Amino acid sequence: MTAFDVRPITEEERRGTFDLLRRALHRPPVTDDVWARAGDSWPAAHKFGAFDGRAPIGIVSSYETELAVPGGRTLPVAAVEGVGVRADRTRRGVLSAMMAAQLADFAARGLPLAALHASEPTIYGRFGYGSAALGKTLRVTRPAARLQERVAAGRDVRLLTPEEAVKEVPGLYRRIGLHRPGMIGRPELWWPISHDRYVGPDGGRLVAVHSGPDGDDGFVVYATIDRRSFDSPDHGAALEVFDLHGASPAARAALWRFLLSVDLVSEVHARHRPVDEPLALMLTDPRHAATTAVEDDLWLRPIDVTAALAARTYRAAGPVVLAVTDRLLPANTGHYEIGPDGARRTDAAADLALDTGTLGMLYLGHWAATTLADAGRIDVRDAAALGRADELFTTTAAPWSGTHF
């Protein structure tokens, strides 16, 4: 095995590690122009590189933000947003060493949770992450898809100029707020690389904003895709939705009404929408809004199990004792009593046993304990506890991230 060192990167190594990440994701190195505009979104802080001498062979990156948890609170979270190993150094322990260093850093900084979107879902279960929230892909056929008359018409929807889109949307996202478990804050460094370069003067994506009785309360980022061909010269364009948020069901309905009213469009596509988004039920014919895929979206990793469990609320049911095992952060290994009044560490006998990846799946409320037990992810020591755990952890709204990072 080739020797390598894992350490925090320096300021001088920012661009080299960013290019390494892009190559690992099969993208070309960043241009000088893009780096000048977006390089500040790749700070050296909270990045660990693997180095063979002076050459980087791997990178793991994160930034600190906040995550909404059941009950309305937000918790600090490490958003893991860049992981890659050079193609000629994979499967040699590089990733495992970097992830171990990153998790130890999260624990030392007192972060209760870490989250990511998995490019390869088979990787992250090894490091204690679990699929905590799903997203669905919608395909809406036009012009047949029409909203029912009983769906509120909303108020004003206006298109922004590219300059307005860069300036106004960050504040609007903050005003809308993290109103659903799993939603994540977008710090200042997120916007240049994930939003501005797509909606700015050279980006090509369009932004529409809805204004309600109290001012702007929703926005959608989308692009048009020309689908005309030699054989189908009259085929309508497709709209691809990248980002849609509203402070209320009425604001979100108004944005969908706008998208379905755009002329010369044959289809609207939207990926990673909430699995319980009721667009199909809003149509006169629900079949015109088909769910074409449901896939993992947000992955969650408890870093401080005690703090994470104590921060969320639970529904009314008898208490359950969980035996949690954490191979990489052994301080988390222990028994935890969960009940309507909260969570605490305990010496009581366990009803259910699970690892941190499965706890991450259970935490936001999407997966029922019974389902996870049926899948072999929970060791059941008291069968009656499954029903109680189902009730304790469930949430009214399905968890959803809504932010790619």
Write structural notes for this entry.
The chain is built from twelve helices and 17 strands. By secondary structure, it is α+β, with helices and mostly antiparallel strands. The strands form two sheets. Strands 1-2-3-4-5-12-6-11-10-9-8-7 form a twelve-stranded mixed beta sheet, with helices on both faces. A five-stranded mixed beta sheet has the order 15-14-13-16-17. A hairpin with a 2-residue loop joins strand 2 (47-52) and strand 3 (55-68). Helix 5 (162-176) crosses helix 6.
Rounded to the nearest angstrom, the radius of gyration is: 23 Å
Task: For the record, give the distance between the C-alpha atoms at the N and C termini, rounded to a whole number.
Answer: 32 Å
- Uncertain residue ranges: none
CATH homologous superfamily title of the largest domain: Gcn5-related N-acetyltransferase (GNAT)
Query: What is the string of helix and strand elements?
Result: EHHEEEHEHEEHHEEEHEHEHEEEEHHEH
